[in-house]
Amino acid sequence: MTTETEKRSTKKAVSKVASWRNGSAGFFQWLEDVKPRVPSAKGGYEAYEPGPLERIEIIKAIDGDFRTVVFCWPRRHGKTLVAALIIVWRFLTRKTQTIGIIANSEKQIVDTAFKTVASILRKTEYTASLIKSGAILISDTGTIQ
After folding, report:
1. Each residue of 41-78: pLDDT tens digit?
2. Are 89 and 27 in contact (CB under 8 A)?
3. Cα separation of 61 and 70, whole Å?
4. Rounded Cα–Cα distance for residues 141 and 43 (Å)
5. End-to-end distance of the chain based on CA atoms, in angstroms?
6. Could you report the per-residue pLDDT of 93-109, keeping only the tens digit for each?
7. 36-51 pLDDT, tens digit each
8. Angle formed by the axes of helices 115-123 and 79-93, to 10°?
9. Is the whole model's pTM more than 0.85, yes or no?
10. N or C terminus: fewer CB in 10 A for the chain?
């Protein structure tokens, strides 16, 4: 059941989509407005807040003149999570683009990257309401529309 607060939050977010398209500033505005929920080290889900070093790397990746971006951080430092957040952000703000997820193996794509993207969409209030309304469709075959 959707509460009145959730409805207001979703309506506010929808009106801000245009402001989310402006490079890294738009990405960070999206983080602030939508508060995407990501798996927590403590269990469950929590709103994502990038650390200062991650913020710098995200700005360089989004605002740089790159066609492909690869995050080269140590294991367990959030490479897949940040990539998944950027994918969700681009999916929501660029309706005419096709977004691909690339990894070392098909298993890694489906079991890690796609599941992370899908869980962010399902656990975040704004996108969960879009899924419920049918505006976003997530299939078990690895596609999101």
Report:
1. 888 999 999 988 889 888 988 888 877 777 666 565 67
2. yes
3. 8
4. 26
5. 24
6. 888 877 777 777 776 76
7. 999 888 889 999 999 8
8. 60
9. no
10. N
